[in-house]
Specification:
Length: 431
Amino acid sequence: MAELQAVASHPSVLSSKSEIQAVMKSDNGGVKSKKLNKVVLAYSGGLDTSVIVPWLRENYGCEVVCFTADVGQGIQELEGLEEKAKASGACQLVVKDLTEEFVKDYVFPCIRAGAIYERKYLLGTSMARPVIAKAMVDVAREVGADALSHGCTGKGNDQVRFELAFFALNPDLHVVVPWREWDIQGREDAIEYAKKHNVPVPVTKKSIYSRDRNLWHLSHEGDILEDPACEPKKDMYMMSVEPEDAPNEPEYVEIGIVSGLPVSVNGKVLSPASLLSNLNEIGGRHGVGRVDMVENRLVGMKSRGVYETPGGTILFAAVRELESLTLDRETIQVKDTLALKYAELVYAGRWFDPLRESMDAFMEKITATTTGSVTLKLYKGSVSVTGRTSPYSLYSQDIASFENGSIYNQADAAGFIRLYGLPTRVRAMQK
């Protein structure tokens, strides 16, 4: 009850009666208290989600519809999923290609906003969860499901991201989270449960790392990375070459931008997903976009992760650089301040929060003239800007030149400095 009161006291997160009822239904303290008709499960085909299918049927007496979102994680992760799902007891598998929607409606707004979490993290997983959750709610409506389920553990951020999105989009759907209810404690317990229920255990080589991949990034956690003092092994990386092994000659790439959003690479107009895929390939071969960081998870603990975001790193550098031409000092300062909050909201799973949507409207308005092109040089892991141009540039060569001109009279600086420095002079006089 105290937890419910705490939720009710924060209307920015959950405000309606139906949302609060949804919290009550989903937070049942591990007591499976109602029979469900049909559940849509976020499904990957791995051991955990394969076991969740029969567990849901056994404990909730429901049909299970498995849902898999293609957000650019690679075709190898999508092969054979239907056979796996049905062998686990699912009535059907629904697969949706969300790559263009993911990049256009989730990645690009974050680029435009300049959203970076804790100075380094480009929000790869954080941006993907709401687009998947939205698709799950849509599928639930299409198949007549009354519940949603996911395989996130109680220690991570993703459980919050999924469930806040569910609440925002359809608070009447029940949410079932097996990791917060069942007695399974780890991989061996899951294998035993699968054998007991005649569920074929996925025959895959288990990575020593916990990874999340989509078209924007690849994250690595676990194994030696759990010690912040240990350097990552070279064979861990999958999207980028070692910077020292990158080509000995730099490569130049030109990014075309319209109203704060990238539209072209080297003069060729591309769709959002194609543009990002192209830059991933270019940046990856030059070792661009590696980040090793210790971050503060939403649930309170610190975790160490290594991220590969080659194309994203190029795009962030390009858009930020173009803003140096098109935005004035005060606007840049306000935008940078809001970008920090924007990143925190996305990281915390509050994509569909009115605050983020309002901030996004500000970002769209303020970058309306951020149009032009930026040329960058990629060389052995580094991204450096070599040129930028915009029809809306606020830069004037006549004014900036060291030569005297008609617009800027250098003699005017004396009066400006005396007024600007008046507080300093007064303080010195008091001494």
